[in-house]
């Protein structure tokens, strides 16, 4: 058995970047900062983002069998929770208040808008980038929306953080709700894969 332990494969994010764009915007082609129409949502807390996958299944039992004869997947939800620090960012504010971003364009430095009485179903595409030196990971979601909002608390001793939880859905053409890209940063990972034509180990 090959020893594939490699300290360079540890991953400690030194930065966490979130970008938003209109729903079903194509995933950026490389790991550089995405160009227009992608917009950065600004600084986030050092906690970064909390990505969660919730899955539920149901076993089907039948007479004559002591074990389930079938397992049905009944739920698979992917979400991310992020706490943003730029509480006055028009994009952060629009997502938290559940209004179109255009609602926050100021007139002579001031903007006034109403929060909707009935929640609007505003959808966007999102990119979540984590960086550790030359190593990078990217999560791309073509169709997401804010489903939970933390309490808003302006403070005198700290910045007003804005916490939101995003939920992700399939994109155009039934594309995946979440796509992950990894840049290994030059770390050799060839030991994890069988050579072509080689019989896999049991």
Quick gist of this model?
The chain is 4% helix and 39% strand. The chain has 202 residues and is mainly beta. The model has no long low-confidence stretch (mean pLDDT 92).
What does this structure look like?
The model has no long low-confidence stretch (mean pLDDT 92). This protein has 202 residues and is mainly β. It is built from 1 helix and 8 strands; from the N terminus they run E-E-E-E-H-E-E-E-E. It is globular. Helices cover 4% and strands 39% of the residues.
Structural class: mainly beta
Q: Give the low-pLDDT segments.
A: none
Topology order in helix (H) and strand (E) letters:
EEEEHEEEE
Helix content: under 10%
Count every helix, treating DSSP H or I runs of 4 or more residues as helices. 1
Q: What is the oligomeric state here?
A: single chain
What is the CA-atom radius of gyration, in angstroms?
A: 21 Å
Number of strands: 8
Q: How far apart are the termini?
A: 10 Å
Strand proportion, as a percent range, falls in 35-45%
Mean pLDDT value: 92
The biggest beta sheet reads: 8 strands, antiparallel
Descriptive tags:
8-stranded antiparallel beta sheet, 4% helix, 1 helix, mainly beta, 202 residues
What is the fold's blueprint, element by element?
Layout (H helix, E strand, L loop, with lengths): L14 E8 L16 E2 L3 E17 L9 E15 L5 H8 L26 E9 L2 E15 L12 E8 L9 E5 L19
């Amino acid at each position: 058995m090959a020893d594939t332990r490699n300290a360079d494969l540890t991953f400690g994010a030194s930065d966490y970047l979130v970008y938003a764009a209109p729903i079903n915007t194509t995933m950026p082609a490389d790991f550089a900062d995405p160009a227009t129409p992608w917009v950065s949502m600004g600084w986030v807390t050092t906690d970064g983002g909390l990505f969660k996958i919730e899955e539920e299944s149901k076993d089907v039992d039948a007479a004559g069998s002591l074990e389930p004869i079938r397992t049905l997947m009944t739920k698979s939800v992917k979400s991310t929770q992020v706490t943003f620090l730029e509480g006055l960012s028009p994009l952060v504010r629009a997502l938290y208040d559940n209004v179109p971003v255009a609602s926050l364009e100021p007139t002579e430095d001031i903007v006034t808008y109403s929060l909707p009485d009935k929640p609007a179903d505003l959808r966007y595409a999102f990119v979540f980038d984590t960086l550790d030196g030359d190593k990078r990971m990217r999560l791309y979601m073509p169709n997401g929306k804010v489903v939970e909002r933390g309490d808003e608390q302006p403070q005198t001793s700290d910045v007003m953080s804005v916490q939101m939880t995003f939920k992700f859905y399939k994109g155009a053409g039934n594309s995946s709700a979440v796509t992950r890209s990894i840049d290994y940063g030059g770390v050799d990972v060839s030991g994890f894969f069988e050579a072509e034509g080689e019989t896999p180990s049991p």
